[in-house]
Amino acid sequence: xxxxxxxxxxxxxxxxxxxxxxxxxxxxxxxxxxxxxxxxxxxxxxxxxxxxxxxxxxxxxxxxxxxxxxxxxxxxxxxxxxxxxxxxxxxxxxxxxxxxxxxxxxxxxxxxxxxxxxxxxxxxxxxxxxxxxxxxxxxxxxxxxxxxxxxxxxxxxxxxxxxxxxxxxxxxxxxxxxxxxxxxxxxxxxxxxxxxxxxxxxxxxxxxxxxxxxxxxxxxxxxxxxxxxxxxxxxxxxxxxxxxxxxxxxxxxxxxxxxxxxxxxxxxxxxxxxxxxxx
Length: 279
What we know:
Blueprint: H1 6-34, H2 40-58, H3 65-90, H4 97-104, H5 110-129, H6 131-136, H7 145-173, H8 193-208, H9 213-219, H10 221-231, H11 236-243, H12 249-255
Helix pairs in contact: 1-2, 1-5, 2-3, 2-5, 3-7, 4-5, 7-8, 8-10
C-alpha cells in the first residue's frame, strides 16, 4: 500500500488517543465529585466529537479539505446530539443500575475500579471505533459517489435516532402510557431504532474513508466492532435481557423486527402490552 501518509497517520492516532483519554479523565473527575458514574455515558458521544476535532487539526496539510471538514462535522453532530440526549434523559436520576451492580463487586477502591473497567475501556473503544473518521482525514481527492452514499447512510441513521428518541420521549411523557410497551412509529418497525441508527451512522462514516484502499483497510474493523456492540454486546442483547420479563414484551418481540426495520407483523393475541422500552 503506497501513497498513504502512514507516518503522519501514526501521529494522528496518538492525537486521537490523547483526545479520547482527556475526555475520560475530565469525566472521571466530574463523576467522582458528583458520586455518579452514569455521567460517563454522556462522555461517549463527546469523546467521538473530541477525536474528530483533534484529528482534523492533526491532519492539516493532508487529505482533501472538503472530506476532512465533512467527516468532522458529521461526527461532531452525531456525538453532541447523543450526549445531549443522554444528559437530558438522565437528569434527576441516581446511579445507573449497571454501574451499581458492577461497583458492588469491585475489589478495593470503587472509583479506581470504575476508572479501569469503565472509563479506560470506553476511551479505548472511542479511539478504535473512530478509526474511519481518523483515516478519512488523509484520503486524497474529492469525495466520490461512494463517499456521498456514506453521507446519505449517515443521514438515515441520525434521522432514525433522533425521530425514535423523540417518539419515545413523547410516549413516556403521557401518563396514560405508564407501564406500556412503546410500539408506535419507528418502534413498530424495529425494537431498536436508536441502535439501528447508530449502525447506519458508523457504516456511513466508514464509506467516507473507502475512497482510499489503505484508509478502508486500516479502519474496516471499526464498524464491525460497533455493529457487535449494538447487536450482540452492550446494546440490544443486554436491553432485551432486561426487558424479557416485562408483561407484553414477548408479544411485541413476536411482531416487531429485532434490529433491521421492516413492516410490523399483525398483532399477536394475548394480554394487553405492558412494560416500557427505553434506550
